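Exercise 7b. Backbone tokens:
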């Protein structure tokens, strides 16, 4: 059965607390393409799960979630960014939380840039790669430049990268002056995930946090369905924990770089489960307050 919406996303726009949007754009993938098929694959896999969440007691069928469908107009990455910004802006303006399914990581900066001016926002950027190039293959809107574009919008102190293990010397040299914080996958392995996540989240002084999750942050043994797989990654449980810790402050989230044709559905299932984790943990924190 083909599902065209995220599971249990049965609320109207008006009543929704969470709004799902897909961006089937992958024109800046640099190694192997296919992330344009991510959003609908993640939606299909979301129907595999029970609506009830064992850990929190939250039932997704009782949470108001709306699925906007797929967004974005796709010429080049700049066109995509301009259209995505316009489509995401009303979600924040209405006080709702966007959950965006990509798409390559070029789709993240416009989702952050759409946040209301003057609001203070931190970004937990979970990724195998630093994505800190000023420009890549002649395109400043490439997925290899996404953390850099977000830093330009929010300031270096409001962005922290978690799980990085792939970076060029040039990116590190540039960052010496700019000063974006990061916690590498190797540090996570040394310190443990609890201490690493606390350290990362403590760096973000904002009330609200946006989670930008590149699925390649997770080790390719668990999530091989992605465009640029990078060994020595985080575990699914590591990322689940990070999402749970950030969720009480959740302003928005994206899950990018799921490229479903490179595996047997495990990466899409994981992505769907992460979206649900953010939702149930946010709702659980709201009720506990
Ligand atoms: Mn990446």
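Sequence design result:
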């Amino acid at each position: 059965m083909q599902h065209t919406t995220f599971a249990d996303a049965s609320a109207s726009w008006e009543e929704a607390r969470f709004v799902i949007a897909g961006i089937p754009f992958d024109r800046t993938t640099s190694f192997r393409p296919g992330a344009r098929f991510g959003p609908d694959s993640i939606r299909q896999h979301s129907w595999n799960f029970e609506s009830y969440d064992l850990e929190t007691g939250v039932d997704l069928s009782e949470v108001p979630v709306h699925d906007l469908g797929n967004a974005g107009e796709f010429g080049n990455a700049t066109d995509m960014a301009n259209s995505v910004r316009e489509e995401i802006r009303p979600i924040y303006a209405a006080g709702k939380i966007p959950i965006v399914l990509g798409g390559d990581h070029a789709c993240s900066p416009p989702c952050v840039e759409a946040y209301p001016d003057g609001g203070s926002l931190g970004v937990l950027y979970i990724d195998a790669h630093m994505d800190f190039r000023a420009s890549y293959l002649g395109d400043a809107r490439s997925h290899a430049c996404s953390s850099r574009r977000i830093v330009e919008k929010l300031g270096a102190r409001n962005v922290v990268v978690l799980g990085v293990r792939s970076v060029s010397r040039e990116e590190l040299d540039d960052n010496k002056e700019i000063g974006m914080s990061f916690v590498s996958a190797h540090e996570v392995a040394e310190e443990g995930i609890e201490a690493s996540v606390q350290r990362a989240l403590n760096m973000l002084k904002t009330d609200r946090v946006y989670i930008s999750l590149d699925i390649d942050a997770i080790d390719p043994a668990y999530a091989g369905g992605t465009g640029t797989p990078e060994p020595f990654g985080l575990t699914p449980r590591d990322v689940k924990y990070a999402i749970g810790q950030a969720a009480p402050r959740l302003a928005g989230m994206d899950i990018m770089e799921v490229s479903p044709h490179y595996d047997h559905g495990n990466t899409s299932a994981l992505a769907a489960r992460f979206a649900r984790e953010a939702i149930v943990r946010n709702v659980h924190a709201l009720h506990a307050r």
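Instructor comment: The chain has a mean pLDDT of 96. Residues 236 and 270 are 8 Å apart (CA to CA).
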